[in-house]
Every structure is written in C-alpha cells, then in structure tokens.
Amino acid sequence: MAARQPRFNQSVLVDTTPLPDSIPKVEEVGASSAPLMSASFFIGAKCKDYNDDYMMCKTEAHGRGEFECMKEGRRVTRCAASV
Asked: Over the stretch 38-83, which tens digit does the pLDDT of each residue have?
C-alpha cells in the first residue's frame, strides 16, 4: 500500500474575467445528455454549417484552437439552444 494519504480538492475555480467583446455572448444549453442525444439529429441538421466552421477552425489550429475557435464554438452553442 502507498504511504501517502490521498488529498482531494473540492473547491471550484471560477474565472470572473469577462470575455472580449469580439466573442458573442451566449447562454449554456442547460440540458443533460439524454435530451441532447434525442435531439442530436435535429441539432446536427440545423447547425451543420456552424459545426463545420467550428471543426475546420479546430483542425486548422492543430489542437491549439480553444481560444482561437471560441467565437465559432459560441455560434454552435447558440444554434443548438435555438432548436
């Protein structure tokens, strides 16, 4: 057995820094996986163009597109919330 005792950190880090104005504001979808899975066909059909733009941005960024592709990701979330 290990001599070290496990340490658990239960605190949550929340970054209160506002996003730049160039990134569109959007609320989270607010649904669990079950409703999202059942609506995924409709979301995919309606939001295909936005999703393709986001995936192209991620591909062109070679895995470093978290911040560069945030604008496109917000558009995908906004589209999914509108379904």
From this structure: 999 999 999 999 999 999 998 888 877 777 888 888 899 889 888 8
The pair of structure tokens assigned to 8 is: 């658990």
Cα(44)–Cα(31) distance, rounded to whole angstroms? 16
Look at the alpha carbons of 29, 32, 36, 38 in this order and tell me if their dihedral is positive or negative.
Answer: negative
| Contact residues for 54 (Cβ-Cβ < 8 A; gap 6+) | 69, 72, 73, 75, 76
Cα separations in angstroms, 25 against 5, 28, 44, 53, 78 = 43, 10, 21, 18, 9
